[in-house]
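Entry 14. Structure prediction run on the chain below.
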Amino acid sequence: MAGKRYVMVVDTKRCMGCHTCSLACKVENNQPDGIWWNRVLTVGGSDIDTPSGVYPEVRLEFITLACQHCENPACVKVCPVGATWKDEETGLVMQDPEACIGCRYCMVACPYTGVRQFNFDEPQYSSGFAVGSEDATKHVKSTVEKCTFCAHRLAKGQLPACIEQCPARARHFGDLNDPNSEVAQLLRERSSFRLLEEKGTEPSVYFLT
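Output returned:
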């Protein structure tokens, strides 16, 4: 068992679909134009931020989607060069852009559509330059990349950027192996679900209901 098991807990009752988490992630990690590691999906109508149903009987909720940092990651099993691996100390599923050969087997194996992004071109920024952390994962042409739970921030004792910036306090992060952690307490007190649990990947992102 990993020394720690970092998990993210998202409160679907508090999430208001503001996309702050997506922007915080993009800026902190210097994601190039067209690359989004963290997305907010609308559970409702066919278009973003639209409800299902007919007024007054309407429904609108949000699900945030990024790498699930699975306990049993399908991506690790198929990578032919070890460019994606599971850190046994933290439980994080990591990606090495210097080792990645761009075969995209990991993207095919991952059941969570769109959480891994492929850099088709050299990184480009509308601002003309990267504005995030110097410690963030580097972006390399023709390689796959994804959410790291801001591993560079965790190494300094900081929370992931999306957790710190969420204005609704809908996102929580911590070590599930610590029974006294906030995430462990929340999961004991509230009902929750994980995405595609039937795939057997044991995702580390929980959604409170």
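The mean pLDDT is 93.
Filed with the rest of this week's runs.
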